[in-house]
Amino acid sequence: MNNKRKKIYADDRLTAKERLKTVIRLEKPDRVPISLMLYHFAPIHAKVKMSEYMSRPKVYMDVMRKLWKELGPWDIYYNINPVSRLTYSYVMMMRALWPGIELKENEMAQTDEIEYMLPEDYDHILNANPILSDLKFRLEMLPRFCKEAEGKNKFKLIASLARDLLFQMIFWRIDFNWWQKQGAVVQIGHQAEMPFDTFSQARNVINFSMDLFQRPDKIGMASTRLAKNFANCAVMAATLTGVPLIQCYLHRSSNSFISPQQFEKLAFPGLEIIVNRIIEAGMTPILHCDGDWLKNFKIMKRLPPKKIIIQLDGLTDIFLAKKEIGDHMCIFGDVPAAKLVTGTSNEVDEYCHRLIEDVGKDGGFILAGGCEIPPNAPFENLQVMVNSVRKYGYYTNQEVTI
């Protein structure tokens, strides 16, 4: 069979890739697609040491392929699989604690939010040459919090990062090829924390909260200054991986952290530059929006319609989100973590049915967890979630556009 036309289920009329493109355009596909972020669930289910899973690519691939056979198939492969802690730190810009290093071998990776950025660093960004500004900022910050970057000058750090990124690209190429042969579409061609949100993490949430009142203009100008280079680096990386979807982490831009007025003035200008550049390159931004975003949706509607995926977790009412922004962006989510862990199979089934019927109405919807599928979720509940798109997700009498 031609892998480019391989279907996930026998009753499907579209491939997973075609289905994803259709929902991004806010149109009805043949059925609702599903994505699963199983990074920490997978090794626990497979009874594999977390330390080996995170440090040995072959172990990771074996575990995920085993889970695909036991749980799958599903449409969208949510690829969170760093080869090195240096690349992980470059993406997330927080101190990482890994199993088998700082943590016990079977503990999940953690982040330690320390203050590594100083108030004067805003001025350094604003006074520096804007060419390669985001890259230079990350290289400047990494030795302050990342063990693998400590004591290295910029040349040695660039060499180490380039080496690890090459390994990541090789690993991804091998990994992606397998998933695409199964008929799944790969979700992420590049991913990184957005500039505004990086500042919040780098200053830590307490100091950054003070910055919002003491130096708000510098925050806004600095995040905007980094935005163009952030977007260009993301587009280049996604081009190299061959996956035209870019995941932009917005962990600290929600109304859980800042007001709508602060979002509009300080965070949105940089976000707008990044989103528009990604779209201009013919790629799709995936906005990973943790926290409560309902009051930001009016502002978010200034972004191009029918070009963006917005990921929501349990803090945003996804049913209200459908009404507020579902005519503008493809909604991704949200079977809550608590529901997957403590709910019965019937409760998970009923909730997935409601999501498909209400949020999936008229298309523009991807069924998923709010973020990470909880590692302690009963396997039966995940089976119910995956099966729900076959049970309830087909759009009847619907002409589909490829």
Choose one word for the global shape: globular
What is the CATH domain class? Alpha Beta
CATH topology name: TIM Barrel
Structural classification: alpha/beta
* Helicity, as a percent range: 40-55%
Q: Could you say how many structural domains there are in total? A: 1
Computed over alpha carbons, the radius of gyration is: 21 Å
- The ordered string of helix (H) and strand (E) elements is HEHHHEHEEHHHEEHHHEHEHEHEHHEH
Strand order of the biggest β-sheet = 6-7-8-9-10-11
Named at the architecture level, the CATH assignment is: Alpha-Beta Barrel
Strand tally, please? 11
Q: Could you characterize the architecture of this molecule?
A:
Helix content is 51%, strand content 11%. It is α/β, with parallel strands linked by helices and 402 residues long. The chain has one domain (3-391): TIM Barrel (Alpha-Beta Barrel), CATH 3.20.20.210. Strands 6-7-8-9-10-11 form a six-stranded parallel β-sheet. Strands 1-2-5 form a three-stranded parallel β-sheet. β8, α13 (297-300) and β9 (309-312) form a beta-alpha-beta unit.
Features:
402 residues, alpha/beta, TIM Barrel, six-stranded parallel β-sheet, 51% helix, globular
Give a brief description.
This protein has about 400 residues and is of the alpha/beta class. It has one domain: TIM Barrel (Alpha-Beta Barrel), CATH 3.20.20. It contains 17 helices and eleven strands.
